[in-house]
Amino acid sequence: MIKHKLYAKGEYVHALISADQNPNILFPVRALIYDVKFDDVNPQYQIKIVKFYDNIYFLKKWFFNGTFKRNFDKSTKTKIQLVRANYRDVNALTEAITGESWEKYLIVVDSVFCTKTRADQIELFNNLQSFFIELKFKEIFEFANRSVYSKGEYYWHTKGHYEKSLKKFLGDRYPDRKNFINELLYNPETYEIDSSEL
């Protein structure tokens, strides 16, 4: 059963979109719903972007040359093939994708990544972004804690040493959640990995 708000064709929403090649990099946008595919589990919207919230530097680095799902049937893709040097600011980019060729820049997004208000979008984005950042903290420890790297410059011998370094690095931003470090650095057993891959 769907527990989040659904929207109709022609409504404006705030959405989080991501390119196929970098699914963990989310771009917050304001968009017009061009078409809707209703589904009992996960409805989808085909959207026309009308506003970006990232700066042009970030968009040039991560949005340009991104590939996005364009249609509900997954048969066609939206490719952001734009020359970075031609766009000095976000307004120029917005004009390019909302101009005469706007239909080739339609993007499909899952309904769970859409909100009605900017405030709700910010909350959703921040929660997801914090999760992705914590994944990076975990990856750093896993790469730097490998036994074959024990003589490496960034090697941490134990989880406790890494926790101290992370606390020093984050300062008052270090989460006060109980068992944060254990949850952050949890390593699944091999049988759990096998189960998740089936």
In brief:
This protein is an alpha+beta fold. The protein is built from six helices and seven strands, in the order βββαββαββαααα.
Largest sheet: 5 strands, antiparallel
Number of strands: 7
Number of helices: 6
Query: What's the overall average pLDDT, rounded?
Result: 91
**Order of secondary-structure elements:** EEEHEEHEEHHHH
Main sheet: strand order: 6-3-2-1-7
Report how far the terminal alpha carbons are from each other.
Answer: 25 Å
The assigned structural class equals alpha+beta
Number of domains: 2
Helix content: 25-40%
Radius of gyration: 20 Å
Describe the model.
The protein is α+β, with helices and mostly antiparallel strands. The protein folds into two domains: 12-116, no CATH class; 134-197, no CATH class. It has six helices and seven strands, in the order βββαββαββαααα. The chain has helices at 56-62, 90-98, 118-144, 159-170, 180-184, 190-197, and strands spanning 12-17, 27-37, 44-52, 67-69, 77-79, 107-110, 114-115. A five-stranded antiparallel β-sheet has the order 6-3-2-1-7. Strands 4-5 form a two-stranded antiparallel ribbon. A hairpin with a 7-residue loop joins strand 4 and strand 5. The longest helix is centred in the middle third of the chain and has 27 residues, at 118-144. The chain is elongated and about 55 Å long. The model has no long low-confidence stretch (mean pLDDT 91).
